[in-house]
Amino acid sequence: MSASEGAFTGPGILLVLDGWGHADASDDNALALARTPVLDGLVASRTSTLAEASGDAVGLLPGTVGNSEIGHMVIGAGRPLPYDSLLVQQAIDNGTLRAHPQLGVLLDKLAVSSGTLHLIGLCSDGQIHANVEHLSELLAAAAAHQVQRVLIHAITDGRDVADHTGKTYLSRLTELTAWAEIGQIATVIGRGYAMDKAGNLDLTEEAVTLVADGRGAPVDSIHDAVTAGERGDEWVPAAVFTTVGSAGVADGDAVLWFNFRSDRIQQFADRLSEHLLDTGRSVDMVSLAQYDTRAAIPALVQRADASGGLADELATVGLRTVRIAEAEKFEHVTYYINGRDAAARGGEEHVRITGDGKPDYVARPRMNLDRVTAAVVEAAARPEVDLVVANLANIDVVGHTGNLAATVTACEATDAAVGQILEAAGDSHRWVLAVGDHGNAERMTKPAPDGTVRPYGGHTTNPVPLVIVPPGTDRSTPALRETATLADVAPTVLRLLGHKPGSAMTGRPLL
Ligand SMILES: O=C(O)[C@@H](CO)OP(=O)(O)O
Ligand SMILES: [Mn+2]
Ligand SMILES: [Mn+2]
Fold first, then answer.
1. Where is the BPG-independent PGAM N-terminal domain (predicted)?
2. What is the ipTM of this complex?
């Protein structure tokens, strides 16, 4: 350790507590209700501040809740990055989406062949994976090109918006199709099936055969479609509207995927592509934003450049990092934090902690936290490792269940884990920077579109705690700046490691 402008430098630990937001104590604030002496101590310390993690501070539309993808990308990039949802909205507002040449070619071809355009995506306005309002632009484009038939394959949410609101969003779809004078809902299925990202192909298959072959329970109304299941909107079982005639994808049809975030739709997109190919159907596919699929699916809106972030800087100066998270959040501390670049830089080691069987987060709110913590403690003890980067998933993942009691347990388990990690940091004379990537568990209810207050497991627009724990007994550290955003994390980490912020970073070191 050496002194530099009042701050210490040396090896450290960057700890992302997923879904660790800040809000006043209330009876729906799981973090405040939980007994969390370690986290409370951190937040009360002098080297603690609150960082903006939502809206335009990170590159989202103003007022939009944060999410893991943009949160980790900005933590890594050290600058706000125009997120895909913002870029799509800009392309709608400036007319470039509607005038996109590739979209035009696809729609003209359908108009000539009388083929069907299939729109597939998450139907809510949660703005994490998709926004149902984007459909007005897509439907208008289809109508303008005289496409004759548009079918919507709606995925119900219940996670990024309050549960049991699926009916409201499906009704919104019918308003949009009436306005555009084209399109009808063909099929409905919950995101638990259609947006599995854990390789549970049996779940994905339900969505694939529903969309490709029209295989699902026949329903006559939105009400029947969403009430068939008793497990909420996430698990609405596959349903086909009897009113549409043939709901499946025929040879010569086209598919437009309208989720803008890739991670939870790519498995479905790949499996549907394979299934159509295997069954001899030639189908054009495009996606609203870029997907990380095996299948080559052209995107209508391109991603922002996220290079020049922490990973690139660490590689340039030759520092070693170990990245640790459980499967749910593994790409967060690797792919996202590295600027959506799948290549591991030199000096980078990845530790992915996997669990057994299908997770039940209410029954097992500890998830695989003990093993994640053990891996962090082990990596911290290795003197050749300059920076340990880890994500503790529980506060967010259990928070998403909307179950307050389970989320309180998750917060308490995380608190104990952070305690162990701080001890390990003390032993190895490391600093620790702990930060949330967006809010979640600090607000567990939300008013639904119909005005009722419902349990809510989704993200928030609240700021997140950002705390630096100096190594050893260093108590000379100055207080942190009061205004901060996630973009300040990478410059601060580099400063603490004894290096300058990268030239592409606009965030500023917090000390
Ligand atoms: O689970 C997810 O896909 C989203 C919420 O829809 O959460 P996160 O951004 O934390 O990954
Ligand atoms: Mn997250
Ligand atoms: Mn989340």
1. 88-292
2. 0.98
Show the domains of the chain with their CATH numbers.
2-81+305-496 (3.40.720.10), 85-301 (3.40.1450.10)
* Nearest bound ligand to the CA of residue 441: 3
In which region does residue 389 sit, left (phi positive, over 0), alpha (psi from -120 to 50) or beta (all else)? beta
Task: State how far the Cα of 291 lies from the Cα of 126, in Å rounded to an integer.
Answer: 19
Pocket flag, ligand 1, residue 331 (CB < 6 Å): no
Strands 7-9 and 2-4, bridge-based pairing: antiparallel
pLDDT computed for residue 4 by the predictor? 45
- Between CA 43 and CA 49 the distance in angstroms is 8
Residue 68 known to be catalytic: yes
Q: Is the CB of 128 under 6 A from ligand 1?
A: yes
**Overall residue count recorded for the chain in this entry:** 511
- pLDDT tens track for 106-140: 999 999 999 999 999 999 999 999 999 999 999 99
Buried b (16+ CB within 10 A) or exposed e, 105-125: ebbeebbeeebbbbbbbbbbb
